[in-house]
Structures are given as structure tokens and as C-alpha cells.
Amino acid sequence: MGNCGTREESAVVSDAQVKQQQLNQGVLEKKHSRSISDLSDPSTPRSNIANVLQDLRNNSLLYTHVIAFTLFELETITKSFRSDYILGEGGFGTVYKGYIDENVRVGLKSLPVAVKVLNKEGLQGHREWLTEVNFLGQLRHPNLVKLIGYCCEDDHRLLVYEFMFRGSLENHLFRKTSAPLSWSTRMMIALGAAKGLAFLHNAERPVIYRDFKTSNILLDSDYTAKLSDFGLAKAGPQGDETHVSTRVMGTYGYAAPEYVMTGHLTARSDVYSFGVVLLELLTGKKSVDKTRPSKEQSLVDWARPKLNDKRKLLQIIDPRLESQYSVRGAQKACSLAYYCLSQNPKARPLMSDVVETLEPLQSSSSSSNEVSLISPVTGFGRPLVTGNHSAYHMHHKFVQTVGAGAGCRSANPNCSPGPPAACRVR
Is the dihedral of CA 380, 382, 387, 392 positive or negative? Predict the structure, then answer.
């Protein structure tokens, strides 16, 4: 996938499912005035896209940090896109390494970059290019990959990102030649990725990422996680809308089941995908692996029932982690994954609550202080006060899987001392 998270394969759905979600889309998807707020709409005519591109070139207020490069400049920094400069290839383009400095353009800060060259064939790739410029051109966060610039010249479409020195999480987790990530590093990556999603969901108009997976989580030299590849991102529901109805796209094994079946997209769809990635971090196994026994090929189907069973959950933790983690820390992380992977979208936590739950695990994963190991897990009950997320208020508490003495929130009337589950779902 390289250093800008190019996409591999899309989710596979049946013809009946596709027809159903197309019907939903025709009824429910709203059209907006000509702008770059909904460029992922597949019904956008190409002539309108040309007008949007002109708006993009002229709009210096929204994109003050994004540079419009010429094709010649990008050819210069990639040595005419030399084959030995290739970082990775995917379904929508090839990624090259490069280096920008004042020799490219006076005033540019010296910086290593990754340059994605989108395939010229296919309108969908063009729309995804526009979507990436739209979202990453306006959104800035430490856990989102930074868009340095773009190139739109004739039929050439290129994107320039900050270079991520350690590549993708996928490579570190699943390549046999890579040293296994430590427990503390995995929890740090999970927290960083969660913060990136929470930021998107809490935007003035929420953004649904729609393609959260290990290959789209990039790592810098300090293993800071950053979300990349926003080609499938979608503006979230507004007003009284409960969801966005759209084409079913994403990656098999990560897409939420209700989204695959109906095409109804919500922020909770991202939460499910996060649960899959967290499960991959915990087990060291891919979400889908046809080489495993038939009952284990789907990681979620195989592992989720064990996540809420204290006797079995430690059996699924990556054996390469050995004794790097505390039992309580593993139980909390497994319980979090269990709720994120709920078949009922409303039973999943908000990403802001996921962040709160992961934060205590950062200190406990590397500290021998027993007090930090047994502190209560944050409940999923606090509503957000920004955006439209107050409608997503959770009405249950997180199941405590820690042993006796860990305690619960005193405000919970259903709390009873002792294992195995002190705080019950309401």
C-alpha cells in the first residue's frame, strides 16, 4: 500500500444487496448545490466536476496550506517517476517517494513526501481524488496524514502527502519479516487512530471515513498513527437525517454488516471497522484469511464470542506479546473490541468514548504501577455537545471485566461487586 494508503480491494456484495442499496440511494440521497462538499456523489456530471476544479483552484481561503504543484515539479521530485522510487501500488494509483525543497520552488520547506499518481482510467478514481483534496485540504489533525499539495493538469491527477517513515500498520502487523509490535506500541497506535476518527466524527459537519483498515493507518518515525486515503470519505447526516444512503464501498472484512446490507452509512459504521482493527492488533491475525481453518477465516466471527469470556480471551491474544501486558489491560481492550463489533449499531460506543477508554491503557501498558492497572474503565454514557452526535447518546455502561476490587461508577445502580461482570448493560 505504500506510504499514502492506496486501496486494495472493495467489499463484495451480492446483486440483491447492490440493487437494494441502489434503490435506497435513489430515494434518500440528497443533492447539494455545486460545491466540493459532496464530491463523492457518483451522480456528479463530469462537466460539473470541471467547474468544481476551477473553484478549487480559486478557493485560497479553505486551502491556504495546500500547494498546487505543476506536473513538471512533481516529475522533478520523483526523478520522472522512476521505478525505484515506487513506495507502493494499489487499485487507484501508484505511490512514489520524493523530496521537495527550494530547488523545486522558491520558498518551499525541505521535506520528504509521498506522491500518489491516480490511474487515468475510470471516473471513480477522479472523484476519489477530488474527495481527498476536499477533506484533507480543509481538515488538520495530528492523527490525519497531512496533504501537502495536489496537481490537476490536463488528465493528470496527483496528490502529495507528508512522508510516513514506517509505512502502514498492515505491514508491521502481518509481514513475517517485521519484528512484532509491542503491546504498548499497539495500544498507542489504537489510541492515535481512534483520535483521528473521533476528530472526523466531531467535525462541524461530521465526516464518515468509510475505509478504516490497517493498510490505511500510516505510522511516522515515532509510531504515531495517522489516517490516510480519504477517497471514500463521506459527509455525515445532517438535521433529522439518521444516516447517509450511499453505494456500498470499502474493504471486505472491515465494513459494518448493516452498511453492507442496506447502504445506510453512519459514524457507527466506522466504529465497527475500528473494532476489527483493534481485534487485529490484539490477535495479530488478519480480518479475513482463507488459509486458516474454515471456522477461523473470519476473524470477527471466530474471536468476538471469546472477547467477553474471561476464560477464553487470553487465548486469542497474539502469542508474540508473551507477558508484555497486564491481564486487566487485556480484558479492558478485549471488552472495548467486543462492544465496537456489536451487530446492533446503537450498541456501539462513540469514538470519543473509545478514546477515553484507551487512554488509561497507555500508562498501564508500560507501567508497573498496579493502581493504574485496576482503575475503572470509562463508561459509554456521556453525550457529545458538538455536531450531531448528541443523537448518538449511549444508554448503557461498559461491561467491566476486571476482577473484584476494580470497582464501578457509583452512580450505576446496577453495579455489584465481584466478577465476572460487575457493570451490566442497561
Answer: positive
